[in-house]
């Protein structure tokens, strides 16, 4: 899958296997970008610490974070991540209409007014648009703390960097398959 030496879930050992086990225990595939990161086990631990931070976030729910990843993956043409997060969103109860609205950048019925407003802000950040003080104040008025706003936007933008690494180090066959999808 990648031209760098990395650890697959089947052959992982040590700290990499421990991290992969978290996904296996949740009956989830180990995300391909995480497998790429296993090329550097120390970096994988840093990356996974951030994943754990978001898994235990006090205000950003799993469905909301999956929606952010879905938007980011869609923005970067990260098809496997779009599909994976779509599956996770479906399992959390989002309808086909909710998914279509999310993909189109519209408000999603399954999310609150506050969540939809923050998703819109994340979308702007992903498109490299400036966020105004008025927009931030509106998010605050809806109950978001500044740390929530930054955390949500960071969840999305982290995928932008990973998408560059993924594309750069994918094997030729993987890149050809991605073009066909």
Please give a structural write-up.
- The protein has helices spanning 14-25, 32-37, 41-55, 62-76, 79-91, 96-104, 113-126, 133-141, 146-169, 172-180.
- With 181 residues, it is mainly α.
- It has two domains: 1-56, no CATH class; 62-165, AhpD-like (Up-down Bundle).
- It is globular.
- The relative contact order is 0.13.
Secondary-structure map with pairings?
Elements: H1 14-25, H2 32-37, H3 41-55, H4 62-76, H5 79-91, H6 96-104, H7 113-126, H8 133-141, H9 146-169, H10 172-180
Helix pairs in contact: 4-5, 4-7, 4-9, 7-9
Defining key terms:
single chain; 181 residues; mainly alpha; AhpD-like; 2 domains; globular; disordered C terminus
Q: How much helix is in the residues?
A: 55-70%
CATH topology of the largest domain: AhpD-like
What's the story with the biggest beta sheet? none
Q: What's the end-to-end separation, in Å?
A: 16 Å
**What's the β-strand tally?**
0
Count of helix runs = 10
CATH architecture of the largest domain: Up-down Bundle
Structural class by SSE content: mainly alpha
Our estimate of the beta-strand percent is under 5%
Ranges with pLDDT <50 over ≥5 residues?
175-181
CATH class designation of the largest domain: Mainly Alpha
